[in-house]
């Protein structure tokens, strides 16, 4: 699935950064850029997009005023140097609110939110969803992570465990090992919580891949993974329920 988007920002440098970020995301297609709200409105009268990457503080007409003027609103991610518009933005049901300077990791996290919502809508429309619980409907069988050189797709069911290594996390599967700069909260965001568990400050494990548990260690694919004191009770509560 591709997300067709436009970017709106009256600062040339900010617009160039957004264009560069968009080019790195495999499921995103930037179809047009604008430096003012009026040209954006004219374009949207005759063209349909999935997403607007929208600056707020612009001359003549702000991003908030632009959204209020639209009859049909696509998904919106706000990009701004000001945090005092956040409440207004979420009142308008924007998907995310990014404060400049925007890191690529934060940008990519916002796009994943849009991707997830669009996927859910598409699945519901096609009648393919049989799950009765909202968290099951939202679950994907893959996620994307940023490496040093590219963005890589990871199949969730193949992950054995994820290991923290300094500023990096190493995702281990039977086929390969992927190093990513994603932080711990980012890892937790992309993993289905009923299939994975954090067992140590440096380890997440796939529950179904656990071969054995001995005292305070887990064995997965010949790897002995420690169970941290902080995570011990939650882990064993999950195991007992299984």
Give the percentage of residues in beta strands: 25-35%
* Helical percentage: 25-40%
What is the strand tally?
Answer: 15
Task: Work out the oligomeric state of the chains in this entry.
Answer: single chain
Query: What's the helix count?
Result: 8
User: Unreliable segments (pLDDT under 50, ≥5 consecutive)?
Assistant: 128-138
Shape descriptor reads: elongated
Q: Could you spell the SSE succession in H and E letters?
A: EHEHEHEHEHHEEEEEHEEEEEH
What does the model show?
- There is one protein chain.
- The chain is 34% helix and 30% strand.
- By secondary structure, the chain is of the alpha/beta class.
- The chain has two domains: 3-119, Response regulator (Rossmann fold); 142-241, OB fold (Dihydrolipoamide Acetyltransferase, E2P) (Beta Barrel), CATH 2.40.50.
- It has a five-stranded parallel β-sheet with strand order 2-1-3-4-5. Strands 10-9-8-12-11 form a five-stranded antiparallel β-sheet.
- It is elongated and about 65 Å long.
- The chain starts with a strand and ends with a helix.
What's the gist of this structure?
The chain is an alpha/beta fold and 242 residues long. It has helices at 12-23, 37-46, 63-69, 86-91, 104-126, 134-137, 184-190, 229-241, and strands at 3-8, 28-34, 51-55, 75-80, 96-99, 142-146, 151-155, 161-165, 168-172, 177-180, 196-200, 203-206, 212-214, 217-220, 223-226. It folds into 2 domains: 3-119, Response regulator (Rossmann fold, 3-Layer(aba) Sandwich); 142-241, LytTr DNA-binding domain (OB fold (Dihydrolipoamide Acetyltransferase, E2P), Beta Barrel).
């Amino acid at each position: 699935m591709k997300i067709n988007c436009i970017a709106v920002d009256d600062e040339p440098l900010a617009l160039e950064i957004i264009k560069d970020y968009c080019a790195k995301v495999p499921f995103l297609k930037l179809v047009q850029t604008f430096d003012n709200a009026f040209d954006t409105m004219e374009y949207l009268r005759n063209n349909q997009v999935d997403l607007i990457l929208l600056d707020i503080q612009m001359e003549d007409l702000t991003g908030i005023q632009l959204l209020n003027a639209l009859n049909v609103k696509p998904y919106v991610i706000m990009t701004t140097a000001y945090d005092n518009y956040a409440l207004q933005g979420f009142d308008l049901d924007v998907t995310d609110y990014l404060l400049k300077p925007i890191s690529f990791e934060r940008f990519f996290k916002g796009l994943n939110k849009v991707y997830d919502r669009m996927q859910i809508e598409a699945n519901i429309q096609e009648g393919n969803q049989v799950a009765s619980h909202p968290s099951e409907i939202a679950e994907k069988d893959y996620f994307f992570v940023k490496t040093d050189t590219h963005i890589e797709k990871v199949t969730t069911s193949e992950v054995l465990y994820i290991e923290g290594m300094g500023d990096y996390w190493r995702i281990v599967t039977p086929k390969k090992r992927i190093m990513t700069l994603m932080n711990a909260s980012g890892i937790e965001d992309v993993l289905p919580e009923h299939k994975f568990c954090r067992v140590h400050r440096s380890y997440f494990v796939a529950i179904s891949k656990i071969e054995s548990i001995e005292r305070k260690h887990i064995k997965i694919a010949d790897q002995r993974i420690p169970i941290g004191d902080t995570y011990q009770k939650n882990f064993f509560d999950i195991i007992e329920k299984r």
